[in-house]
């Protein structure tokens, strides 16, 4: 089956290790430019606000040992906030930092480990991919798939240097579950593989309830394969549900204190998700028991009716007991505030209706997916039974995640992971086709140019339609050098003998300033309505009443703005002379005292002290 689904003979242990090591080396080499780019963009710091906030959580866990109390008083100061993140990634970061603290300070070790943990996750993805696709990809196919990684933009970005973020761990677990599903539908495997896939899915839900979508996809695939193929997929579905229930039970017992085991929470793992997994497992155990009693799983119609019951029973049970589950994981958040916060975050945007900016995103994020879907549809008709099963599994994944990606860009990461295998197989098919061009009786091989064009076409087209960067009048070409400002603030804090504690500034740099300076901040880019309302209310106010009340209530010491900050778009409104604009222009109200800044900071920043 040239250039397509490549069943591979067992590899020798030595050969397999050599190919894997070569793949890891290539992974490192092709990501060197992106490492350099991220370091240049961040000034050698971490990737984003989430990265700093994650390290702050680990520092506080190390300092106080309060596993169940994840509240930080350093953001939304002085009241504090608790994020919806869970402890697995914190534990991995803590373990690495404790090992590193044998040779350096714990905080420094944590920052170094945090900087490189996501690239390490990428190397683990390569290992998982190699051993999960050995029966599908040849050595040549594996190496081509490694070269394609940077062309899966959002998937690859999760593994960026300086990004200690749970998304890299989620992607690793999704790839792990996906390759298990590859083996389940293409090989006569041990039933334990389905059990492991379920447990892996439960662990992913522990990390983030976002993983429920991937879990539903895997469960739906096993169910539909049972309807389509019958035995042995019923037992595999049951084992998947058992593994899922066991993992969620263990996660709930570890993550939450006993007093909270029965408390429904939607943004993080709780009794809600345990209940759904429990009812789902019980439903499929009953279906399997009935099938065994009647001596078989019957025809397609009977299996379809049973599968429908297996899906509807847990769905209806959750609707009756926990109806808010269907409002989504952000049901407990202030929708209006979240809408304002996420309005400018690219990963939170829909892909429709199409504008030039969104057309760029569609091509950039879903271009490889488009080619992968075409290949899957082609091989679904031309392949043998085993290959059709693999392609059916992938097609179901595209049906699940491509519409989600059009609703929110963030979901395209799963569509890209699904595209990884068929896009590789399509490249192999093109390589084996050996296209040639005949000119004046001379045949010119076009294989490599054709493959290069095929693989880079989405990226090149996206580059061609890249929209111009948005023009922000407030920016005026001014660059906000936050690391330099952090150095100044640290020096100022020492000079003031710690008498200043609370800094009011932009949302995005808030966590970084908490990590790099002794100051606490009010705003951080998360779902805390209290801090977001006060930040938007202060900087967006057209008069002094609300800002003065906020400053007094929170006992703010300093107010800091950068003239070039893109966050001005949150606050400036037509016909309103916002507080952010007035502070940026140096037209502060009398109750704020301007602070003279060093020359290298004074062109971009405005700092004000609140007199006592």
Q: Please, what is the average pLDDT? A: 91
Low-confidence stretches: none
Distance between the termini: 79 Å
Largest sheet: 5 strands, mixed
Portion of residues within helices = 55-70%
Shape: globular
Proportion of residues in β-strands? under 5%
Q: Largest sheet, order of strands side by side?
A: 4-3-5-7-6
Structural class call reads mainly alpha
Total beta strands: 7
Number of helices: 25
Radius of gyration computed on alpha carbons? 27 Å
Describe the fold and architecture.
With 612 residues, this protein is mainly alpha-helical. It contains 25 helices and seven strands. The strands form two sheets. A five-stranded mixed sheet has the order 4-3-5-7-6. A hairpin with a 2-residue loop joins strand 1 and strand 2 (442-445). The chain starts with 12 loop residues before the first helix and ends with a strand.
Describe the structure using short key phrases:
two-stranded antiparallel sheet; mainly alpha; 25 helices; 62% helix; 612 residues; globular
């Amino acid at each position: 089956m040239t250039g397509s689904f490549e069943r591979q003979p067992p590899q020798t242990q030595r050969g397999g290790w050599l190919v894997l090591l070569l793949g890891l080396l290539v992974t490192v080499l092709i990501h060197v430019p992106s490492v350099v780019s991220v370091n240049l963009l961040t000034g050698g710091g971490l990737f984003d606000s989430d990265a700093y906030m994650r390290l702050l959580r680990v520092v506080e866990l190390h300092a106080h040992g309060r596993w169940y109390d994840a509240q930080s008083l350093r953001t939304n100061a002085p009241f504090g906030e608790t994020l919806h993140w869970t402890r697995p990634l914190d534990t991995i970061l803590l373990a690495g930092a404790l090992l590193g603290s044998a040779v350096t300070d714990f905080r420094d070790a944590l920052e170094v480990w945090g900087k490189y943990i996501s690239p390490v996750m990428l190397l683990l993805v390569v290992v998982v991919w190699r051993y999960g696709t050995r029966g599908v990809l040849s050595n040549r196919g594996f190496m081509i798939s490694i070269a394609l990684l940077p062309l899966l933009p959002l998937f690859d970005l999760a593994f960026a240097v300086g990004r200690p973020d749970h998304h890299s761990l989620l992607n690793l677990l999704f790839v792990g579950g996906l390759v298990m599903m590859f083996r389940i539908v293409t090989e006569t495997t041990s039933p334990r593989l389905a059990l492991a896939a379920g447990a892996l899915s439960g662990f992913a839900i522990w990390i983030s309830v976002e993983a429920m979508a991937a879990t539903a996809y895997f469960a739906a695939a096993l169910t539909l394969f049972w309807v389509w193929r019958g035995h042995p997929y019923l037992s595999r579905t049951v084992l998947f549900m058992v593994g899922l229930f066991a993992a969620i039970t263990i996660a709930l017992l570890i993550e939450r204190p006993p007093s909270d085991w029965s408390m429904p929470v939607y943004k993080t793992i709780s009794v809600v998700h345990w209940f759904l997994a429990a009812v789902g497992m019980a439903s499929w155990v009953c279906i399997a028991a009935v099938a065994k009693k009647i001596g078989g799983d019957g025809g397609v119609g009977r299996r379809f009716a049973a599968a429908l019951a297996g899906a509807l029973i847990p769905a209806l049970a959750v609707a009756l007991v926990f109806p808010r589950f269907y409002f989504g994981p952000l049901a407990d958040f202030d929708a209006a505030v979240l809408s304002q916060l996420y309005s400018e975050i690219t990963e939170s945007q829909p892909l429709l209706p199409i504008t030039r900016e969104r057309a760029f995103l569609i091509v950039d994020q879903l271009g490889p997916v488009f080619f992968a879907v075409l290949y899957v549809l082609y091989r679904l008709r031309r392949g043998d039974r085993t290959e059709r099963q693999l392609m059916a599994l992938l097609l179901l994944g595209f049906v699940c995640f491509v519409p989600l990606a059009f609703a929110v860009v963030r979901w395209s990461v799963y569509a890209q992971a699904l595209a990884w295998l068929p896009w590789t197989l399509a490249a192999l098919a093109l390589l084996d086709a050996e296209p040639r061009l005949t000119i004046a009786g001379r045949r010119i091989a076009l294989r490599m140019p054709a493959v290069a064009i095929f693989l880079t076409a989405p990226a090149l087209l996206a580059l061609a339609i890249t929209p111009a960067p948005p023009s922000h009048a407030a920016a005026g070409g001014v660059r906000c050098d936050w690391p330099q400002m952090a150095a100044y603030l640290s020096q100022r804090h020492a000079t003031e003998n710690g008498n200043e504690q609370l800094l009011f500034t932009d949302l995005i740099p808030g966590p970084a300033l908490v990590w790099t300076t002794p100051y606490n901040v009010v705003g951080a880019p998360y779902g805390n309505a209290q801090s977001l309302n006060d930040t938007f209310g202060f900087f967006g106010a057209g008069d002094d009443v609300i800002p003065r009340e906020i400053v007094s209530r929170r006992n703010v010491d300093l107010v800091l703005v950068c003239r070039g900050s893109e966050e001005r778009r949150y606050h400036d409104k037509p016909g309103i002379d916002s507080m952010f604009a007035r502070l940026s222009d140096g037209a502060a109200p009398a109750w704020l005292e301007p602070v003279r800044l060093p020359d290298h900071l004074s062109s971009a920043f405005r700092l004000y002290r609140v007199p006592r």
